[in-house]
What we know:
CATH architecture of the largest domain: Alpha-Beta Barrel
Number of helices: 11
CATH topology of the largest domain: TIM Barrel
Shape: elongated
Number of strands: 20
CATH class of the largest domain: Alpha Beta
Largest sheet: 8 strands, parallel, barrel
Structural class: alpha/beta
Radius of gyration: 24 Å
Distance between the termini: 20 Å
Number of domains: 2
Strand content: 25-35%
Oligomer: single chain
Amino acid sequence: MTHISLLVLAAASVLPAQTTKIVRPKEIDAVLANPGIGFTTLNRFNGDPLNQGTKWTEGHPFEVFPFQGKLEVAGQPLTSIAYFRVYWKYVEPEPGQYNWTMLDAALRIAHERGQTLMLRVAPYGPQALTEDVPAWYRKMVGNESGKAFPDKWRTDPEDPRYVKSWTNLVRALGARYDGDPRLEAVDVSIVGYWGEGEHTDQLSEPTMRVLVDSYLEAFPKTPLLMQPTDRRTNAYALSKRNVGWRADCLGDMRCVDGHWCHMFDAYPEDIVNFGIQDAWRGGPVSLEACWVMREWKNRGWDVDYIIEQSLKWHISSFNNKSSAVPEEWAPKVQRWLNRMGYRFVLRRFAYPESVAPQGKLSFASWWENKGVAPCYRRFPLALRLSDGKRTEVLVTGADVRNWLPGDVVYDDAVMVPAGMPAGAYDLQVGLLDPVTRQPKVKLAIEGIDGEGWYTLGKITVQR
């Protein structure tokens, strides 16, 4: 029988004057496919075949592949995030009629494959015939080819019809999906090919605010990501709430051949100039390969430099577009994954040798986050007492969203239930799924059992 107690007492920095046990778990070097971090798939899911060569698909409805029962795919790390980028025309084929079937299926399949869904609905793409705005919208506004649009704009975002239609779409998405635990994050996408936001700085102030506000208001619970577009837009969003950011051309090193490139001429400057260098403290950073990693290899680009820059920018997740990692780079990718996002190591845990029913189980703990970012979702830290007959889960008050890179000292006390039988119990620790209350986050230490708990030692309940 398992019981869960939510009673948490005031933090106790000093343990009671009784025999104290001290545990120093052994660190492991394994890659941990934890929630919200690591590689992502693109318009595919764990277990689906990879794109071949240096090509990929995006913007169109995902293809359903027969699932072979195995989540791992050779050439790609196991992922916890499925990224789905789809054009507006497929989401709203008729005005006010939304393709919930497609989006619901993406959420369901991702969940079945051990992933959450990261979503971007893009207004349009570069191909005029197949990636335009929805046909009904094009019919309403007519042929706009005579307008002097900035590069990578396909329709006029200052048109009140665009503002109304787009914000209605965003609000409909939020009404249906905001706070869904299967939804990892949503991209703020308002203009430009693939929704990447080119020339957002040329929007009028009122239009920019209305478009951005639609996301801020529609998704108060789900994390939002926005492109580094311009200081005005990025600062406006960050003035309202914590917003993460994403960039879609990590690795572009064409500068080595004398050309302009993202890695030297855009990202370093924009991250600072647009005021988003500290946004990682409150929202995730998700980066996408320019082309795919195989293209980096073919062009002779310095993957070590690319990786180090991404870590400097506090990356949590990386989209290689469901393409294979060059085999020679597998060790480098493993080291990258072990620093990407958060990585919790329990260094020291001190607790009393014995405790009484209705007594305080005080503990002192030292953790290290060896990643480059915090965890952006709250996974409750809990202790478990188990003797094979009775199991009691004691939830602490820790908020791992505040565990920034570096050392974390967390001391607390939980109450042992009054009806706890006397005897010797295994003392275990775990980070739980807030819905299922089962262990969800793996720690970078030895001692995990078949349920995801980490055994620290024995504790005696005395009458």
